[in-house]
Specification:
The chain is an alpha/beta fold and about 850 residues long. The chain contains 35 helices and 20 strands. The protein has an eight-stranded mixed beta sheet with strand order 11-12-14-13-15-16-19-20, with helices on both faces. It has a five-stranded parallel beta sheet with strand order 7-8-6-9-10, with helices on both faces. Strands 1-2-4 form a three-stranded parallel beta sheet. It starts with 10 loop residues before the first strand and ends in a 9-residue tail after the last helix.
């Protein structure tokens, strides 16, 4: 309507919020900028228009919400005088009284604009300062909390455009007005200043400033202060992938269409490879689909829920069918409602890609052999690209990005968790490669990929049966589906991918500059050697050859009982006898025994009576076990031998060495224990319990499959990897109706005969004093199996023994086998293979 009026003046009163912004009131700031647009529109039509962005007037108004030490009030008469001078001009003008020193601290971005650089006095511009990270590193862990509190108050004041003095330790950031965009801004600043990857939920879970400060101080110390990290805690992968079913439903017919999977551990460069392949016109390589771990879309929804892990499928649908984010979500929701099978979803995606080969990349697939088996059930012509990266680089990246937080594993050691995931994932994928045809499996080394991408990608193209394309070498060119579902969303995949501008060959050597806070475990070292990786931090400790000695089994008669022996190495070599603990088996030593055999020893680990594959007996007293070892040793050798025992096996070994002193050349006791004396007052109760057991022995449960029994074994011993637990379970179970059952004697579970063994604590300690062979005691620094009083008794009884403490708990032969093998090899003369 005003366009038709013949006006001399058209004045719009706006707020300085339209120029500076208004923390927590983005709508108010945007509304004021609309006035600028109106004025520009009028002037384009040669109509008068003046817009004034006023600072706060003393009489109040909305602009007073910006009032703090940065802006002073404009007195009413002063404002009217300024308005009189401005009338008649056709422009956009800001009028405010500034405290420049405070304003530039709260609105530091102003110093980067052309206009304000000409206005702000030079002496008030912020000066360079020592980095926050350097200052924090120089402080003690206790001092960091105070420093961080002050840092956070300043950082939050700048984001919210508030006076720092008005922000108190007990304030909630959300109550102060921080919205989701401000939280992301805070995370970006913290990531840069603290060199610490943070996730939004960590802020939302700790909105109070003092609580967040304490948390960040602890996380900074954990990430950057090696003296506070507990390094060698072996942890089986958890929460990396979904729970799987015992059996997959087999389709009536396998999908005959070709498909390719990129398999790897997390942080191995799979996003880079996926994006490279996305540039090939004959390939379709979307972000993580997260389909293979599930039977149906209903299963997928239950597990992924509202997490971002489901966004890759949506992003693919948006691209293939030109859908919006909302439309793609509706399509996925419909599939969930119909509970579409994952086989159908794969077939649908392949139909949409036309002649292009579908590439499915999800690092979680490799963490579970059951998931990998699903691909062979669904597809007839699947191909697998196994992407491998140096364990040093993967572990460091995993810990630096704090992926343990992302996986919900906050209580676990991130370095040990990362190593466990690297080993488990790569071992699972290698085993898959061994099962399929040679033309279905290709190993790709990440370091080779970034060092010579043309050569490696040419090899991949030949494997996938497509021509090489130059676009593969430019992963940052064109649309490669690296964005998120929405304009403000992060891309699906590696959060650091878009920080690079091209393929960086220096990443091939990054592992050389990494110093981990712990030594790698034996299985990791062996697998890394298999991939021909150098391990300077671990190989320089002691050169233990890769464990390529396979385990053999044979049965012999020991005191009338059929006893199974697990063996490694040449029987003509010096003997090392390994004794396992209660309810275990000789194969429990398989992470250690091959490495000893590789050093020139014959290693024998019997299944003690009632255990493993050995026969059950009528009696299981300590004297029975001792007599079995005595008989067995006579059958094996006439020469002194090395004896290593764990837990109950260490008690048997110590007793034997105290009696047959000339037969043992060196005794090593791993997490040894001291037999308890039964309190006289409790004798009747104990005997009653054991007599009841003898009258009606306990029965083993029935498990529906080996996999379920193996999971039960991992619950009892969490340090076991999935592969090793299934290997041990296969060996120690027997098939029964409706499943499998433990093979070992269920009576062993009662400990009845072992406790009432006729050898008192006093007599046992007296036997220890008779030992003449060198003794090495090995304990785990996290073990709670022995009471401090028991440890003192052993030390007092064996003052001549060498005592070593390594990282781990009671089950050190599973938790830290490499350290055990190194200790044994360092204590003993090395026997060159092929010599006696």
């Amino acid at each position: 309507h005003s366009q038709s009026l013949n006006l001399d003046f058209f004045v719009l009163f706006s707020s300085v919020a339209g120029i500076l912004g208004s923390p927590g009131q983005g709508n108010y700031a945007a509304a004021n900028r609309i006035m600028t647009a109106i004025a520009q529109y009028r002037r384009a039509q040669n109509l008068p228009a003046l817009v004034i962005h006023w600072g706060p007037w003393a009489e109040g108004g909305m602009a007073t919400k910006l009032t703090n030490q940065a802006l002073d009030f404009i007195q009413p008469q002063q404002g009217l005088d300024i308005l009189e001078k401005l009338l008649g001009t056709q422009d956009e003008i800001s009028v405010f009284k500034a405290n420049w020193s405070t304003l530039t601290k709260q609105f530091s971005e102003l110093t980067k604009t052309y206009y304000f650089q000409g206005v702000i006095p030079q002496e008030t511009k912020p000066q360079d300062h020592v980095s926050v990270f350097s200052q924090l590193r120089a402080l003690t862990a206790e001092e960091r909390a105070d420093y961080l509190l002050d840092y956070l108050r300043c950082a939050i004041a700048q984001i919210l455009k508030l006076d720092r003095e008005k922000i108190h330790p007990h304030d909630s950031l959300l109550d102060l007005g921080m919205d989701s965009l401000m939280v992301m801004e805070a995370i970006a600043n913290l990531k840069q200043d603290l060199q610490l990857m943070l996730y939004p939920r960590e802020i939302y879970e700790r909105p109070r400033l003092d609580v967040l400060t304490a948390y960040l101080a602890a996380e900074f110390t954990k990430a950057h202060d090696p003296h506070t990290v507990t390094p060698q805690e072996t942890i089986a992968p958890q929460n990396l992938t979904v729970k799987t079913k015992p059996q997959w439903q087999k389709p009536k017919q396998k999908n005959p269409n070709p498909i390719a999977f990129i398999l790897s551990s997390p942080r191995s460069g799979s996003t880079l490879l996926r994006v490279m392949l996305a540039g090939h016109p004959a390939l379709y390589s979307p972000p993580e689909l997260h389909l293979l771990p599930f039977e149906t879309m209903g299963d997928r929804q239950k597990e992924l829920g509202l997490s971002h892990l489901g966004e890759g499928l949506q992003r693919a649908l948006m691209d293939l069918e030109k859908l919006s984010a909302t439309e793609s979500q509706k399509k996925v929701d419909q599939w969930v409602t119909e509970n579409k099978s994952i086989a159908d979803i794969y077939a649908y995606l392949q139909q949409q890609t036309g002649e292009r080969l579908l590439i499915d990349k999800s690092p979680s697939y490799g963490s579970d052999r059951h998931i990998l088996n699903h691909s062979e059930i669904l597809f007839d012509k699947a191909k697998y690209i196994h992407l491998i990266r140096h364990p040093y680089a993967v572990i460091e990246s995993f810990a630096r990005l704090r992926m343990d937080k992302l996986l919900g594993a906050e209580q676990q050691n991130p370095y040990a968790l990362a190593e466990s995931i690297w080993t488990e994932s790569n071992q699972n994928i290698v085993e898959l490669g061994n099962r399929v045809n040679a033309n279905q499996y290709l190993q790709v080394i990440y370091e080779d990929l970034v060092r010579d991408p043309r050569a490696v990608l040419t090899q991949i193209c030949a494997f996938l049966e497509v021509e090489f394309a130059e676009a593969l070498l430019d992963p940052y060119g064109g649309d490669r589906l690296t964005d998120g579902l929405h304009a403000q969303s992060m891309g699906v995949g590696d959060p650091n991918f878009l920080q690079h501008q091209g393929i960086d060959p220096s990443l091939a050597e990054k592992w050389r500059s990494i110093e981990l806070l712990h030594r790698l475990q034996g299985p990791t070292i062996n697998l890394a050697h298999r991939f021909r990786y150098e391990l300077p931090q671990d190989d320089k400790i002691i050169q233990i050859q890769p464990a390529d000695q396979s385990m053999g089994e044979r049965f012999i008669q020991v005191r009338g009982l059929e006893t199974c022996l697990c063996e490694w190495g040449d029987r003509q070599k010096p003997l090392i006898l390994l004794l396992h603990g209660i309810l275990e088996q000789g194969a429990s030593w398989q992470l250690i025994a091959p490495q000893l055999a590789a050093q020139g020893y014959w290693v024998v680990a019997p299944d003690l009576r009632g255990h493993g594959k050995s026969a059950h007996a009528q009696s299981y007293s300590m004297l029975d076990f001792l007599a079995d070892v005595d008989d067995l040793s006579k059958q094996l050798t006439t020469q002194p031998f090395i004896l290593v025992g764990h837990s109950m096996g260490s008690v048997i070994g110590a007793m034997y060495t105290g009696i047959r002193r000339e037969n043992v050349s060196h005794l090593m006791l791993v997490e040894t224990i001291v037999p308890n004396d039964i309190d006289d007052a409790e004798t009747s109760n104990h005997l009653t319990t054991h007599l009841d057991y003898l009258a009606k022995p306990p029965q083993h449960p029935i498990f529906p499959s080996i996999e379920v029994a193996a999971r039960r074994l991992r619950q009892a011993t969490p340090q076991l990897s999935q592969g090793l637990s299934e290997s041990l379970t296969t060996r120690s179970t027997i098939p029964v109706a409706n499943g499998v059952q433990w093979r070992w004697d269920p009576f062993l579970r009662t400990r009845a005969g072992i406790e009432f063994n006729g050898i008192s604590r006093r007599r046992y300690l007296a036997l220890l004093k008779n030992i003449q062979a060198p003794i090495t005691l090995i304990y785990g620094d996290q073990s709670e199996f022995n009471r401090p009083a028991d440890l003192e008794v052993i030390e007092g009884t064996l003052p001549q023994a060498q005592r070593l403490t390594i990282s781990g708990g009671h089950n050190l032969h599973f938790e830290n086998p490499q350290a055990i093998a190194q200790i044994i090899c360092q204590q003993l003369p090395i026997n060159t293979p092929g010599t006696q």
